[in-house]
Amino acid sequence: MKGALTWPFLRLYILALFFFSANAILNVMIPLRGHDLGANNTTIGIIMGAYMLTAMVFRPWAGQLISQIGPLKILRIILVINGIALVIYSFTELEGYFIARIMQGICTAFFSMSLQIGIIDALPEKDRSQGISLYSLFSYMPGIIGPIIAVNIWHTNDMSYFMIIMIAIALITAVFGFSATMDSEERQTEPNLEKTPYGPVSVFMQFFKNPHLLKSGIIMLVASIGFGAVTTFIPLFTLQTKMGNAGTFLMLQAITVVLSRFYLRKIIPSDGKWHVKFMMSILCVLMVSTGLIGLSPYIGVVALYVGAVLVGISQAMIYPTLTSFLSFVLPKAGRNMLIGLFIATADLGVSLGGVLMGPIADLTSYHMMYLICTLFIASIMFYSYEKRPSFIEGAVKTD
């Protein structure tokens, strides 16, 4: 094996698999548990959205702090905090869930930034998109079995199983993470601080000043609203309509993401150019998927499950495509902070998928909420169309 499939990178992917295992269960368990406790869609959306909203706030600075303290020390600190958060889930209710989601958001900001920046910096240009795609693949693999576990726990109505699983995941992740070594850090003899022209506040202004970051960020933001709405409300959507099974839906979605990110990873552009037809095509897939989910009460359960597969395909392709594009066209000075800012737009979108779409679901209905998501995605599909040669040939013009 070579490139993105060598053992040092595989070890990082496996750690990501363990780290994100709990979330695959919590994404289903929290909405179902919140419904049992009498929470409305708005409250459930806020609790679910707190995770990504917190991650969004911390991501732009995570790269710099990691370079100052060191990735290994940061990793061990966040694994302890993440373990405490998972234990909190096991014996509290909605208020505790909110606090634990915030703690998880902080951990995820530093964990994912350190791994993704390391992959981008270590791999040659031709392998960047594959490395990012494989990292995303392993972080999503727990979604294959996690939703089924969550639904089964909820049906047993015995929270002791939930407590045991959360504690077990915390311990396994900590043991694996604490035993990890980073050769680059062990050889480091002096601080390697990133030289960046951006301050902790001025970095946010770059989102509007850099046309590549602005376009990619807006597309990722709106697409992630769709992803967040699906993840947060599918358990309650299937419960209300009595059509399909949330665990089966999310399992199909996760399997599709995993297979797509592995078998389709080589077709993801990795040349720093804006591929208009490719981007519009994958956004069209996402638009059709949310439309099928919204119309499934009238079309049938097959539409719901086809929607799950199409969501998985789009989710597998959009993020690594945009991240790879930005890794070429963003200036090297402060690139880590700018990529962190882009990832923050994905976090914000997933958060808004719960926080914004929850009240819309309360005011209208679940199927109408998904149709509104479809209109949002249709708008960014046309927004992604770009004629300017200076934008399409981004890598050439910004080097």
From TrEMBL:
Instruction: State if Transmembrane is listed as a keyword.
Output: yes
Q: Which UniProt keywords apply?
A: Membrane, Transmembrane, Transmembrane helix, Transport
Give one GO molecular function term: transmembrane transporter activity
Any single Pfam family the record assigns to this protein: MFS_1
Q: How does it sit in the membrane?
A: Multi-pass membrane protein
Query: Which segments cross the bilayer?
Result: 12-30, 42-62, 74-92, 98-120, 132-154, 160-178, 218-237, 276-299, 305-330, 337-361, 367-385
The UniProt entry lists the main location of this chain as: membrane
The chain positions of domain Major facilitator superfamily (MFS) profile read 8-388
Q: Which GO terms describe its cellular component?
A: plasma membrane
Q: What is this protein called?
A: Antibiotic resistance transport protein
UniProt source species: Mammaliicoccus stepanovicii
Positions in coiled-coil regions: none
Presence of the UniProt keyword Aminoacyl-tRNA synthetase in the record: no
* Top-level taxonomic group: Bacteria
Location of the protein in the cell:
Cell membrane
